[in-house]
Amino acid sequence: FYEKLYNSAVNNKADNAVAGIKRSNNKYCVDMLVFKEEVCTGDFKEKIHLCDVPDSCQVWNKIYERNFLINSGIKFIPNRIYEDIPFTAQILYYSGKLVTVPETYYFYWRGKNTLVKNNKKACEDFCLSENEAINFLNEHGVDYFENKTIIKKIKLCGITLFKTKTKNRVRENFLLNFIKWKTFL
Q: How do beta strands 98-109 and 159-167 pair?
C-alpha cells in the first residue's frame, strides 16, 4: 500500500499521494473513495474535489512529503476526535501537487464499539472540526456545498429500503442497497 503511494508520489514529484477507501465491518464492505485513474494536480479546488473534502478527510489513506509536513507547522488539534478534518483541508491548500493512486485502497474496519460512534464528545468534536474546515475552505475560495455529499435514507424496521446520495448535481439512487442507478439534476 505505502510502496504504491510512495512510488506514485516520487514519479509525479508530488507532495501528497492518496488512495481509495473501503470501509467494512462483519456484514459488508463499501467503497467510500475510488480512483479509476492517476490524476496529478496542484489546483486546490481539484485536490478538494478528488479527496472528497470535507466528507472524506481521513489522513490514513494518504502519504505526505516529510519536509513539507515538518516545515508547514500544520498540526493536529490536541485532545480532539475528528482532528483530521481541518488538518486535511489545510494540508491540501498549502502543499504542492497531489496524485491519486488508482486500484490502491486503505481498508477501514469499523467495529461495533468504535470511538466515533454514539459518543457525545465525538459529536461535538465533529461539528467543531467540520465548521473549522468549512470556514477554511470558504476563506480560500471553495464553496463547501459544491463538494458536499447529501445522503437521504428511507428505513423500515431499521432496514434501509431506499437511499439517495447527491453530489455535484448527480444523484445516485439505491434500492435495498444493491440496485443502483444515477440521475443528473
A: unpaired
C-alpha cell at 69: 509536513
Q: Do the Cβ atoms of 81 and 121 come closer than 8 Å?
A: yes
Q: What is the pLDDT of residue 65?
A: 94
Q: Which three cell numbers stand for residue 56?
A: 472524506
Residue 28, pLDDT above cutoff 80: no
Instruction: Indicate the helix (H) or strand (E) that contains 46.
Output: helix 44-51
Please tell me the predicted confidence (pLDDT) of residue 176: 77
Rounded to whole angstroms, the Cα distance separating 55 from 45 reads 14
Q: How far apart are the first and last CA of the chain?
A: 37
> Measured between alpha carbons, how far is 97 from 181 in angstroms, rounded to an integer?
33
User: Environment class of residue 62 by beta-carbon count within 10 Å: exposed (0-12), middle (13-18) or buried (19+)?
Assistant: buried
pTM of the complete model: 0.76
User: C-alpha cell of 183?
Assistant: 440521475
Q: Residues 6 or more apart from 123 whose CB is under 8 A from it?
A: none
